[in-house]
């Protein structure tokens, strides 16, 4: 008996539909696409906040949901007023809030550093290095530091 096939075409930005019924977990590129999507979303937050860092840091103008305008170059304030919906990008906002609670300073720096680590991880993923090895390498580097 032949397996049932699906005919759903793949659109731009979507993975191809499974060839056979029950073949969903045999797509090898789907986890990689998800990882790269998460990295891209988090990098966007880090890049948005990066230009407010340092002595030549620029102010950001943010319009809140209540139509109020906030102008600031403080990373914690900017991230607090940004409406970030992506879960991976939201983690950077939470990271900034945790840094603010713990040390009271360095909120922008910690987001920029995390963004740089994500850029490095993305390069390693594209070289074919397994995510577990990348995570273990980061943990080893943290232990050395």
Automatic annotation (TrEMBL):
Top-level taxon of origin: Eukaryota
Record-given protein name: T-complex protein 1 subunit delta
Naturally occurring in which organism (per UniProt): Coemansia helicoidea
